[in-house]
Amino acid sequence: MLSIGQYFGQEPNEERSERFSRVLPFERTLAARDDGKIVGGAGAFPFELSVPGASVPCAGTTVIGVWPTHRRRGALRAMMRAHLDQAHQLGEPLAALWAS
User: Which neighbouring-strand residues pair with 45?
Assistant: First the structure.
């Protein structure tokens, strides 16, 4: 989880990683790499979103970012493309981000 949490100012610890991995499925995480080193990450919480008259599957975009040394190199764009493609393949017509 350090590959994701480090750009949110979090120090790695086992408890935080365990808690986070219970709600964010590993198969819904992505990594950007440079020479094998993880330089960014993204994830998606699977959930249902209420829309007028229905509830639809949604990819909850979360913890997306890249190291400052790797910004403006296309890594974030590539992860977002992969994230949206994965949502489409899983039958999720929406991806949502609650930015804070």
Answer: 60
Judge residue 50's burial from the number of C-beta atoms within 10 Å of its C-beta, 0-12 exposed, 13-18 middle, 19 or more buried.
exposed
In this structure, the chain runs to a length of: 100
Model pTM score = 0.81
pLDDT digits (tens, 9 = 90+) for 9-51: 777 788 877 887 888 888 999 999 999 998 999 999 999 999 9
Distance CA 100, CA 91 (A): 27
Going through the chain in order, the beta strands assigned E by DSSP cover 29-34, 37-51, 54-66, 94-96
Amino acid at site 57: P
